[in-house]
Amino acid sequence: MQWISNEWKEYEVLDTTDGYRLESWNGKILVRPDPQVIWYTPKADPRWNKFDAKYLRSNTGGGHWDIRNLPESWQIAYKDYLTFNVKPMNFKHTGVFPEQAANWDYIREKCANAGRPVRVLNMFAYSGGATLAAAAGGAEVWHVDAAKGMVAMAKENARASGLADKPIHWIVDDCGKFIQREIRRGRKYDGIIMDPPSYGRGPSGEIWKMERDFYAFLKTVLEILSDNPLFVIINSYTTGLAPSAVGYIADSVFGPRYGGYTRCGELGLPVKSSGLMLPCGAAGRWEPGR
User: Fold this and answer.
1) Of 157, 163, 226, which Cα lies nearest the Cα of 189?
2) How far is Cα 162 from Cα 158, in angstroms, rounded to an integer?
3) Does 280 have pLDDT greater than 70?
4) d(CA 105, CA 5)
């Protein structure tokens, strides 16, 4: 299955070749590395050489931005309900993952059509796209990320989107430790969203590895799902992890208690020059049985 985020008006993948993507962010032209782009096509678009900023990879890891003509930050809107602050950051990031728009629409619709109060937990929540989509759908949301700066950026996006007065709880914390506290408190959630890293270090130096630690983490998530859950969304940018693996782990954890099934697939973005889809990560949407 493919979920293509093809309803953007202010973002576009213009072209792809030789490990890079050429993008327009509300008129600002960026060139960024993309490990999925393993093909070579002619750089017919003149903006390959007339970019506003390009992220240059280093042979020793990481890289840096070559900025020619770019403000410190600017805004980009998605449909009529989300506005993000865009800025070039470390590791080629901009503060927005445009391919997640397909998930945002799903989240907003599920929350809006629930017909009851909904509590949503967004973990590894980054700059808040999923948080704001849930809030736009009427949910009360807990936004959890260990990076204080990213939580601050998410708050800025809430203000830009006109959602600052919505019931959003902004929490700077380690997601694993947060879940353990929620289990002790007996707090439950109707929707849970997560984008766990492939590799990371906790606040005390503990090492997280997706392939080793995610199953146990998901088992703890099971304990904070409500008796009548709406969904669990798992996003993964781990290289080599098949979408079907995301679906299998979700079904094996949530299925025995709730039934249901996981739709899994690739998130992607249309490429203007070719009309093809650029694959951008794996995702799974579990829903309980009816």
Assistant:
1) 226
2) 6
3) yes
4) 10
DSSP β-ladder status, 231-236 and 191-194: parallel
* 173 vs 180: CA distance, rounded Å: 12
Q: What long-range pairs does 247-251 form, CB within 8 A, spacing at least 24?
A: 247/284, 249/214, 249/215, 249/218, 250/218, 250/284, 250/286, 251/286
The length of the chain, given as a count of residues:
290
102 membership: H or E segment, kind and range: helix 101-112
Q: What is the mean pLDDT of the chain?
A: 94
CA 148 and chain centroid, separation: 17
DSSP label at 276? P
Q: Is the pLDDT of residue 61 over 80?
A: no
91: pLDDT strictly greater than 90: no
d(CA 196, CA 126): 10
Q: Exposed, middle or buried by CB within 10 Å (0-12, 13-18, 19+), for 49?
A: exposed
The backbone region for 172, taken as left when phi is positive above 0, alpha when psi lies in -120 to 50, beta otherwise, is: beta
121: Cβ contacts below 8 Å, ≥ 6 apart: 141, 142, 144, 182, 189, 191, 192, 193, 224
E strands, 125-218, in order: 140-145, 168-172, 191-194, 199-201, 207-209
Give the tens place of pLDDT for each residue, 108-118.
999 999 999 99
Look at residues 225, 216, 208 and name the one whose alpha carbon lies nearest to residue 252. 216
Asked if residue 56 lies in contact with residue 72, where contact means CB atoms within 8 angstroms, the answer is no
Round to whole Å and give the CA distance between 227 and 230.
10
